[in-house]
Amino acid sequence: MFARGLKRKSAEDGEDVEGGLAGAQAMPSYSLQRQSLLDMSLVKLQLCHMLVEPNLCRSVLIANTVRQIQEEMAQDGTWRVVAPQAAGRAPLDRLVSTDILCRSVREQEGERPGPDAGDGHTPDLVPGLATVPSAQALRSPQSSLWEVDSSRENRGGFQKSLDQIFETLENKTSGSVEELFADVDSPYYDLDAVLTGMVGSTQSGHGSGLQAFSSATAPPPSSSCRSDLGELDHAVEILVET
Amino acid sequence: MMPGIGVLTQDTLWCFSQVKGTIEIGATEADIISTVEFNHTGELLATGDKGGRVVIFQREQESKNQVHRRGEYNVYSTFQSHEPEFDYLKSLEIEEKINKIRWLPQQNAAYFLLSTNDKTVKLWKVSERDKRPEGYNLKDEEGRLRDPATITTLRVPVLRPMDLMVEATPRRVFANAHTYHINSISVNSDYETYMSADDLRINLWNFEITNQSFNIVDIKPANMEELTEVITAAEFHPHHCNSFVYSSSKGTIRLCDMRASALCDRHSKFFEEPEDPSNRSFFSEIISSISDVKFSHSGRYIMTRDYLTVKVWDLNMENRPIETYQVHDYLRSKLCSLYENDCIFDKFECVWNGSDSVIMTGSYNNFFRMFDRNTKRDVTLEASRENSKPRAILKPRKVCVGGKRRKDEISVDSLDFSKKILHTAWHPSENIIAVAATNNLYIFQDKVN
Predict the structure, then answer these.
(1) Which residues form a coiled coil (chain B) (predicted)?
(2) In angstroms, what separates the C-alpha of A190 from chain B's closest C-alpha?
(3) ipTM score here?
């Protein structure tokens, strides 16, 4: 009877991601919104790759936006490896209000954390699955969607596209990267299907992909990355089953 | 004398004249109008749609009995210009949507126009037939051959009047010259050549030759991964057949002279406005992308449309535009949402009036805007069925940005972003405008006092 008036604490506090947000519920941080914009842009790039024939102008503009964000994140030092615990979340859940991004630099000066302040949050805040497969996805669709007149076999050759566009990512893999969506029949405008497609290739190529991705961060020891790989693999499998 | 021509004062009132197209029920995506263009005299008005069809309207002769009703436009010809195709090599569909229509100046009784989809340009001849020969010697009236042995006399066939028939025939097909999507075509002032521009290349054609074209601009990088900029629009100078401009997705315009070299990779002039660093955001580049570029009739100015503004440039000044007009600045704080729903990539066109004194462009919620360059006045009007009573005067519309909304105003959040006016056209010499609102074509005229 005494417990009636008491509200149980939100069980979500136990999850790393939500816990980090507890202090910033009122206004999503600039970094979070920027990440959200990055995720949105990467999804757009993948989706437009699936259209009848991609609108090149739109793709180029989105890709340039992605590059801008990534460059800024690299300067901030916020471009880092993601923790697999957050991997179970679909990227769209992380699309928070991005109005703050619409404001000009002048308006943001008061609100934005300085580059060295960072978020004060653990890397767990950064949506795991959204970022990693997105980096993966950046490989082939990014450039292959531009190279409309290339044959499908050439797509493996665009492996290098990512590092040329985003200087901080070093591509250490060689050989062909399978076209992410080459043999997936499900509709691509469905995000779940997109993720499924990513999972399919992630499992096969993720080792190299994550290797390259993690090497971009400053500077993570490769051993910890390898342990991360196994955990991510596990997380991705969970996602497939949902 | 045309009242109100070229002057958008408070005395100029725009009235509804006609609307073409179906009311919402039964409208398919194929009916969406994708281009609108008056011919050089304004007698004909052509529209192209997503289904690959071209519809040409002709202005009826003004009758003395109905002076208050200036000539109406009625359907003159309808034809299927482009069909959907499949590119087997790339396993991709080629849309039949008509991206642009451009008229050739009239040189004889027939009318000629260029229409293009993403890949192929076609030259169409539209001609009238109102007489038919009768009285053949070797054929009877039904066209059956007669036995020559039964012919005893000879006669000369005569032309007899018949019901007017308008025929459209494809005279030339200019294909296989574009790897990327054609966004512009422009007829040169020499009337012998024209250009077609896609995302990365511009080709020069001779009307008589369909199996060859000259590549005059190529911005494709050797390494496609380095691609950061595409061509968005291109147009020939109205008088100088050696000059043309093309705009880019980075908000720049280049003026090229074909006399300088065969491949115009180096521009004669480069127009770019320096960026305002205080206004910079992640969307700055996207909203600076130019969606349309048009020479003034005089050839002295160019007008460009980007997502939020229309700019007028003097060809003699490259470092900034001489005029900037805000089309819908209230959207600046909504860019994130517009990016999410892809509206930020909408390509609005812009047009000059006949005397280059007023410019017009479209917006959302079926609004379109006019700016008088002399008086600096502007007006927002709406193309809607509610305002569609004959000769009804269009009431200026206003978008309420914040604070208290007045009775006739509409708030930004109530705007319908699916109703976008991308394509408009202005009669070359009169105050008659054609506004494409999705699958409907509205024709407005100024009020004749």
Answers:
(1) none
(2) 15
(3) 0.91
